[in-house]
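G.,

No rush on this.
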Amino acid sequence: MRLLSAIGLIAVFSLMPGKPVFAQEDSAGRQMAMEFKIDFGRIELSDVPAFVSLAVKSEYRQVSISQAYKSRLPCGMVIYKLFLNVEGSTKVNYYKEDGSKYIPGRDG
């Protein structure tokens, strides 16, 4: 029973943001899990694309971006990690270049 609990915890922690897990088939058609860490580099707030800024402003009534980071995934997709000040608290959201939300581990 403890072994199953430990396996469950490992599965939950392996799916946390920053370490997406993807499935890919090998040459025999078996599904293999692939894992990679997303490395972000800090960028100037002025370098955040207009589509991303508009998406943030349409999602929250009163918001300001305090920090912005950018990363290119192995598949070529560019994503932005933004630290947002929303009504007195800080939130971290991820966006694709086109302004749509990016959810780590769900696409890549």
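When you get to it, here's the other one too:
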Amino acid sequence: MTQERIEADEKIRKSLTEEPLLLMPDWNIPFKLYIDACGDGLGAALHLVQIINDKPTEGPVCYISRQIKPKEARYGASQMECLCLVWELEKSHYYLDGSGFEVITDCNEVNSLLNMNTPNRHMLRWQIAIQEYRGNVTIVHKAGKIHKNADGLSRYVPLEAETHIPIEGIHITDIGTEFFEEFRESYKQYRNFHILTLLLDEY
């Protein structure tokens, strides 16, 4: 093994064991979603604030980015930022569905997307797409320097590969015994539970 490979191996080991490490999602804590869009791509970072070593620490749960499509290149800055939000909500639906979360953006128009009275064709479609998150989402405007994570992701997006190799993964969640106890008790209180059991017995 050459010295160059040894140094590369050490660099990888160091990157995997030092901050910022990816945090496990915790649906009891509100998420923070940083978004940014530019002429090159869309970028977003999903964060949580967890207690680590007895102090509140904000860290990433996942990063995501993609290139701008040719037809999207005609969008203005406001439309691009709204597109980024809708795209990221679709990609992170597993994390955000039913959860409280805060969207951090440097574009004021994103803040008005939920309640826009006269949206154009694109905005109307996006407005409808995010209605399911109404009541769970708070959109906050902050200067771009506050969220360099998403800003960097939107400018250094991965190139589109000529061939696509599917990546399969599994997400593991530790569910305590209390969950199953609550599940059993709720079924006992369900008045039509006996009908459900009879129907299941038939099959």
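Strands lie at 31-37, 41-52, 55-67, 101-105, 137-141. Residues 27 and 99 are 6 Å apart (CA to CA).

Enjoy the weekend,
O.
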